[in-house]
Structures are given as C-alpha cells and as structure tokens.
C-alpha cells in the first residue's frame, strides 16, 4: 500500500512539474526575447539563450523613449496601492458586519449585494462614465480608485472566513465590555490575516493589470497607467518584438515582486480555507 502511494505521488509530482514548466515557457520566452536583437527573436528552433545580447539597448529605448515609463510606474503604483488599501478596508468592514453583527434585513441586503456580482461590469460603463463626468471625477486618479473601492468578491470571500470564527469568542469579548470595532481590530482581523493578505494580493494584481477602466476614464497622457503606456508603446513599436517584450517585462516586474513577498500568506489563506471547508 505504501509503495503504491509513493508511486502515485511521484507520478502526480511529475505531471505537475511538466504542467508548471509548460505554463512558464511563454514567460521565459518573453524574457529571453527582451534580451535579444530583433532578428533572433523569431528564429526556429527557439534560442533560449541569446547569441547576441542586446538587453541594455532594448530596455534603454523602453525607459527613455517617447513613453515616460517612470511616470507610468508612479501612476500605476499610486492608483493600485490606494485602491488596494481602500478596497481591503471596505471589504473587511462589510464582511465583518455581514458575518458577526445581527441587524434587521442583514441576509436580504447581503443577498442583494451578492446578486450584483452577476451583472457584467461592461453594462455599467456608460452610466459610470456619465456619472463621473457630472461629478467631476472623469480623467482623475481618484475616480479610478473609487471605481474599485467596493468589491462584492472581497466582501463575500472575507465573510466566509469571518463565519469560521467561533461566536463564543465574540460574545466573551462583548461581555468584557468590548465594542464591535474593538472586537474587529483585536480579534477578528488577526484571525483572518492570511485571507486578507490573499485578497489584497489579488486586488493589487487586478488593479495593476486593469486596462479597461483607465482606457475609458483617463484622457490626459500624464495620468496614464502602465497598461495604457504599454499599449501606446505598442502603437509605435508593435512590429519590433524585442522592444515589446522588454516593455512587457517591465510592466510585470512589480507583480512578481508582490507575489514573491506575499506567497506565504497566499498559501496560508488557501490552507485556512481548506481547513474551514
């Protein structure tokens, strides 16, 4: 029996390794292409290690060209970080309220909020655009931040983790005189920290990669995010694949850094959800 389990584990590990490498190949090709001269990018078979290194020139053109990548980075970091902080805060508070505070109509209100998750966001674009023009938030970073300040997914996800907290702990704290904000900050938040970190990383990635909202709600080039900048860069250099790959690598580096830093919390959040389930 033990030998059979060991063989099965080896087979599963081998399959997962092969799949992992297969998923990584496009990313590795992108990095390799960003380091090559143009004529070597589309050679067949693929030259994973460049014969002629051209990384300095490619990345210099990207960072010092017509698109100011340093400004694009700053805009994206500002919008993404503020959006993530706001969305996590709002989702944490809303999730705790729906999970641990009894009030009239709570379940109905949560059902209505959850039902909005089925509405495609594209159907709201015209209404949001007109509203933003009317209240003066069009072509501003504040408008982009507010668009994603409330997340139905974040509220639902964190609520499920809050439900896993034993109500006796909450009641004991209330008997000791603690209010809901004290319970929320001192008891609830530490217990669901991995889940909060997981959602924060997901929100960061979604906001950083967002192309649709900046495209519609930003007009001034000085306010462009990195995704709009890469798109504009592609309009000028779309036929030069080595430059496009260098621009793409530049755009995803922050995501890799955030994931490497937060992967431990992501794994803990997944494990916590698995144990709860």
TrEMBL record:
GO process annotations (BP): transmembrane transport
Record domain ABC transmembrane type-1: where: 73-262
InterPro entries: MetI-like (IPR000515), MetI-like_sf (IPR035906)
UniProt entry tagged with the keyword Ion transport: no
Subcellular compartments: Cell membrane
Membrane topology, as annotated: Multi-pass membrane protein
SUPFAM superfamilies: MetI-like
GO cellular component, one term: plasma membrane
PROSITE patterns: ABC_TM1
Keywords: Cell membrane, Membrane, Transmembrane, Transmembrane helix, Transport
Ranges that cross the membrane: 12-31, 72-96, 108-135, 141-162, 183-206, 240-261
Family according to the record: Belongs to the binding-protein-dependent transport system permease family.
Stated name of the protein: Carbohydrate ABC transporter permease
Organism listed in the record: Lederbergia citri
Lineage, highest ranks first: Bacteria, Bacillati, Bacillota, Bacilli, Bacillales
